[in-house]
Write a structure and sequence with these properties.
It catalyses: tRNA(Glu) + L-glutamate + ATP = L-glutamyl-tRNA(Glu) + AMP + diphosphate. It is an enzyme of class 6 (ligase). It contains 21 helices and 11 strands. The relative contact order is 0.08.
Length: 520
């Protein structure tokens, strides 16, 4: 029986046993976008029945991650709704009721086999080179035998009595996939601790919460026939299933202890705007009808269709290819934001999108986003609120160079630096070697004589210095950079000079000029 509901209802149901990584975040995003595109509802449900691994800290991190990504849920923890509670550990009484129904209808039974006994049978099957399936030993126990074991306090699980049939999954992405139920066997739906198994609880929750579309990673496809059998046993309407392609790294391997398994909050801490990561993740296995890659939220939420997703693995190409000797030593799962930043130096699609958005957002918004990155910077305290006009002016000039906001403080600090020094011998030698002193002296004299006040003025002035000294390219620009900044790299000089202003620029050259024996 297919779903009778007219309103599209999707859900994201994470297990609170770790942070939210890119794979999980993409699943959440696909559910969110599809619900929005169809004018439906997006639900959040917490699947915490694995009590050994579920933690409150992980639950809070997942909520924080989703909120940062801008995926507000219509029903779920903190929001409520008509189908709660939305945390599985608070729904045990519901599962217990449905389990009693299955047992009474002979569609499930108690299994008193010990873990040692089951493990022995499993090893025997492995030694014979055949897949292990439960042999149904407890399926034929009489009521008196069952009561005897219960009275003795024998631990038991509850197993679903799997009917012998062909299960067909009509998947919106993968197409029709067929499974023989005889290869599944009677599987556990309630564990010995009384908590339901994943495949069992998820069916009851999806049915009672009226979920119309189950969108998740392709790794869950093998779970689907079990879930369909349980849907059918209860007479619940079936949702539509859509299993999104696997996400792989640039080496074609599944993301696990590699870059994509990093918490999405690490991208926040690096200074990516949430819209950038949303846009990037939307393209991991999905393409827009017109092939566009850069799309504002409103457009994504209106055109997304799960049926445009590809069966082929999606490549998460943010990270540069590791050197062979690093592959065994780098565990991306343990990198902090700064460590992760070292692997983001290539110009990737994510960085291209990020730079484009940073250029386009209102400067007031960018100033507010900069606040966490200004806290420990070497700029005066009055500029760290993110609203000071001077700070916004500087940020507006440097944002064209930024792929992520964590890159901004060194540029901004440049404008507030008073005690200027050469950052190293390399920078100093740019003046001391060749014709460097002549270039530096001529530049100082030129800005003293002129009154440059915009990038074009400074560009023309440097060209004039080149004509007078016979220098061009690196031997012209590098001595000028060194005598004005004490560094060998940085912002485009005409932009920097305009922001610094003529007087501050002269003062800097006088300080650095004395160090290299260059009189004003």
């Amino acid at each position: 029986m297919t779903t009778p509901y007219t309103e599209v209802r999707t859900r994201f149901a994470p297990s609170p046993s770790g942070f939210l990584h890119v794979g999980g975040a993409r699943t959440a995003l696909f559910n969110y976008l599809y619900a929005k595109a169809k004018k439906g509802k997006f639900l959040l449900r917490v699947e915490d029945t694995d009590q050994d691994r579920s933690t409150e800290a992980s639950f809070k991190i997942i909520l924080e991650s989703l909120k940062w990504l801008g995926m507000e849920w219509d029903e779920g923890p903190g929001v409520g709704g008509p189908h709660g509670p939305y945390t599985q550990s608070e729904r045990l009484h519901i599962y217990k009721e449905y389990t009693a129904k299955l047992i009474s209808e002979k569609k499930a039974y108690r299994c008193f086999c010990s873990s040692e006994e089951l493990e022995g049978k499993k090893k025997q099957a492995e030694s014979m080179g055949i897949p292990y399936l439960y042999d149904g030993k407890c399926s034929g126990l009489s009521e008196s035998e069952i009561n005897e074991q219960i009275n003795k306090g024998t631990p038991f699980t509850v197993r679903f009595k799997t009917p012998n049939k062909l299960v067909v999954v009509d998947d919106m992405i993968q197409g029709k996939v067929k499974f023989e139920s005889k290869l599944i066997g009677d599987f556990i739906i309630v564990k010995s601790d009384g908590f339901p198994s994943y495949n069992y609880a998820v069916v009851i929750d999806d049915a009672l919460m009226k979920i119309t579309h189950v969108i998740r990673g392709v790794g869950h496809l093998s779970n689907t026939p079990r879930q369909i059998l349980i849907f059918e046993a209860f007479g619940f309407p079936l949702p539509r299933f859509a299993h999104a392609s696997e996400i792989v790294g640039t080496d074609g391997k599944k993301l696990s202890k590699r870059a994509g398994a990093t918490s999405v909050l690490a991208f926040r801490d690096l200074g990516y705007l949430s819209e950038t990561l949303r846009n990037y993740m939307a393209l991991l296995g999905w393409t827009s009808p017109d092939g566009k890659e850069y799309m504002p939220d409103e457009e994504l939420c209106s055109i997304f269709d799960i049926e445009r997703c590809s069966k082929s693995p999606a490549t998460f190409d943010v990270f540069k290819k590791l050197k062979e000797e690093e592959k065994e030593t780098v565990d991306f799962n343990k990198l902090d934001a700064i460590g992760l930043s070292e692997y983001l130096n290539q110009k990737s699609k994510l960085n291209w999108m990020s730079n484009k958005l940073i250029r386009e957002v209102p400067i007031e918004r960018l100033g507010q986003e900069m606040v966490p990155f200004l806290v420990n910077s070497n700029i005066p305290a009055e500029y760290k609120s993110g609203t000071h006009p001077t700070l916004l002016s500087i940020l507006d000039s440097v944002r064209v160079y930024l792929d992520r906001l964590i890159q901004a403080p060194p540029y901004i600090e440049e404008f507030f630096q008073e005690d200027i020094q050469f950052e190293n011998e390399e920078a100093k030698n740019l003046i001391l070697e060749g014709n460097g002193k002549k270039v530096a002296k001529e530049f100082y004299d030129s800005i003293t004589a002129a009154a440059p006040n915009n990038p074009d003025d400074y560009k023309n002035l440097m060209a004039s210095v080149g004509e007078k000294t016979g220098e061009k390219g690196r031997t012209l620009f590098m001595p000028i950079r060194s005598i004005t900044t004490g560094k060998s790299h940085g912002l485009e000089l005409p932009i920097l000079f305009t922001l610094l202003g003529q007087e501050k620029l002269k003062k800097r050259m006088e300080i650095l000029g004395k160090i290299v024996g260059l009189a004003p």
